[in-house]
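#help-structures

NK: newbie question. if I give both the sequence and a SMILES, will the prediction place the ligand too? trying with zinc ion
OV: yes, paste both and it writes out the complex. here, I ran yours:
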Amino acid sequence: MMVNKCDLCKVELEKEPVMAGFGFWGRTELCEDCGQPIINFLKEKKLIEKESKQNVRR
Ligand SMILES: [Zn+2]
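OV: that's the protein plus ligand as structure tokens.
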């Protein structure tokens, strides 16, 4: 079974990772601590659409 790790702090993710998919970075899996500020930043700069659509598909 695959273990998800945060791409920034390398901590193992026990919950669902925060997916930050954008341009040059490809798709990055982050823990909430690392992911949330990045998501917020990208939203602020309008670099990504809302990621919430992902959560609908379960
Ligand atoms: Zn992290």
